[in-house]
From TrEMBL:
It is found in: Cell membrane; Membrane. Keywords: Cell membrane, Membrane, Protein transport, Translocation, Transmembrane, Transmembrane helix, Transport. It holds the Pfam family SecE. Component of the Sec protein translocase complex. Heterotrimer consisting of SecY, SecE and SecG subunits. The heterotrimers can form oligomers, although 1 heterotrimer is thought to be able to translocate proteins. Interacts with the ribosome. Interacts with SecDF, and other proteins may be involved. Interacts with SecA. Essential subunit of the Sec protein translocation channel SecYEG. Clamps together the 2 halves of SecY. May contact the channel plug during translocation. This is Protein translocase subunit SecE.
Amino acid sequence: MKVIDYIKDSFSEFTTNVTWPTWASLQNDTMIVAIATLILALLLYGVDSLFGNFVIKSIFELLR
């Protein structure tokens, strides 16, 4: 059957030919992603606060 052969071949590929990252490498990469996410979140918060405090308030003041 084609489906059974596909599953067997896929399992063989994952166990023999795939290079899995080491635990230390995985932790390092996770830390990089977490720090980059935090920096991006802070940057977006700053831009949103700036836009909300100055631009929107200025527009509302002009419309009064």
